[in-house]
Amino acid sequence: MAEVNTTTVSFPSETSQDALTEVLRSGAQRLLAEAVEAEVAEWIESHAHETDAAGRRQVVRNGHLPNRSILTGIGPVEVAQPRVRDRRGAEGEVFTSKILPPYLRKSRSLEEMIPWLYLKGVSSGDFSEALAALVGPDAQGLSASTITRLTAVWEQEFDEWSHRSLEDKQYVYVWADGVHFNVRLEEDRQCLLVLMGATAEGKKELIAVADGYRESEQSWKALLLDVKARGLAIAPQLAIGDGALGFWKALDQVFPSTREQRCWVHKTANVLDKLPKRLQPEAKQKIHDIWMAATRQDAEAAFDLFVATYEAKYPKACQCLAKDRDALLTFYDFPAEHWRHLRTTNPIESTFATVRLRHRRTKGNGSRVACLTMVFKLMQSAQKRWRLLNGSQLLPDVIQGVPFVDGIKSQEAAA
Length: 415
Prior knowledge:
Elements: H1 14-46, E1 59-64, E2 68-72, E3 75-79, E4 82-86, H2 108-119, H3 127-135, H4 144-162, E5 171-181, E6 190-199, E7 204-212, H5 217-229, E8 238-241, H6 247-254, E9 259-262, H7 264-272, H8 280-291, H9 296-310, H10 315-322, H11 325-328, H12 339-342, H13 346-362, H14 368-383, H15 395-399, E10 404-405, E11 408-409, H16 411-414
Parallel strand pairs: 5-8, 8-9
Antiparallel strand pairs: 1-4, 2-3, 5-6, 6-7, 10-11
Helix pairs in contact: 2-14, 4-14, 5-6, 7-10, 8-9, 9-10
C-alpha cells in the first residue's frame, strides 16, 4: 500500500492575529507621525523668510503637543504632533494640521462605518459591541449616547449641505424621484424628494434631498426654486423621472427649456400592472424591444406593435404606455453612450435599495428629521463610489446643443 503523506495546515491563532494587528498599528503610527512631521516641516519652511532684526527665524519648532489617541479601523493609534511657535506675537499665524485637525478623535473611515452599521440593522445600544468586534476591544467611547451626539452632528451637516451655494455648478442631466419611508412615531409615510445630477465632467452628484408631500407639484416646485435660488442658474439639458411625479409640472415652471425623459423601469411596471399575469412575460419583452431598439424608427415600429397586440382587450395598458410616447423616446436625441444612464432613474433606485433594507429591518426611523439625516449620510458615502458617465467626453457637445440622431452626432455637426 502506498504511503500517505499528510500535511498539517495551521490557521493563525488569536495570539498571531493580535501580533499582526500590533504590527499594522505600529506601522500606521509611524506613517502618521512621519506625515505630520513632514507637514510641519513644510509649514515652517514656507515661513523661512520671516526673520527678526538679528536674522533669527520667527516660525520654529517647539517640542510636541501631548499625545493623542486616534481611533481607526485597526484600533487606537497614538500620535504626538509637533508644536509650532510663531514669535511674531499678534501678527503670527496659528498652525493647524490638515492631517490631524483639532479635536479629531476618530478617523473618517470609522465615522463612515457607523451609518452603515445602522443601515444593516445594528441598534445604537449595540454599536460598542459591534465596533469592538471590528476594530478590537479598545474601541471605547462609542456608546449609545455617543451615537446620539453623532446624529446631532449629522443633522447640522445636513442643514449646512442643504444651504450650500450651487453657483459654480452645472448639471447636464438630472434624475428625480420620490422615495417613501415609514416613520415609527408618525402615522403618514414620509416622502423624500431626491434630485441627482451629472456634471459637465460626467460626475454624478447628489443635488438635493427634501421632505416632500406625496411628490406633489408644489413640493417639487419648492425644491427646484430652492436650488435655483442657491445659484443653479443653468437649466439641465434633460431630466429623467417617473411620469407620475408632480415634478414635471414644476420643472416646466422653473426650468422650461429642460427636456423630459420618462423612466422605462417605472413605465414598464405601470403597464404590466394593467395586464393579466399570464401575459406579463411576453408583454415585458415587447416593451424591452421598444427601448432597446437601435434607432427611433425601430422603436416606433416596436411601439406600434405593442399597441396593436394589446389594444383591443387591454386598452388601459396601451393608454398608459402611449400617453408618454414622445417623452419615453427623448433619449434618441442624445449620445448613444449615455442611453443606459438616461432611460431609467436607476442612479437613484440602486442607491436607495440599501436604504430601504435598513428601514425594513428596523421598521423605520423614529422621526422625519432622523430619516432625512440618515439618508443624507448614506448617500454621501455611496456618492464616493459612483462612477463617471459613459462617453463623458461627449457632454460638452450636449451642452453646446450639438444635434444627435439615433445617438450619433449628425454629419453636419461633425463637419
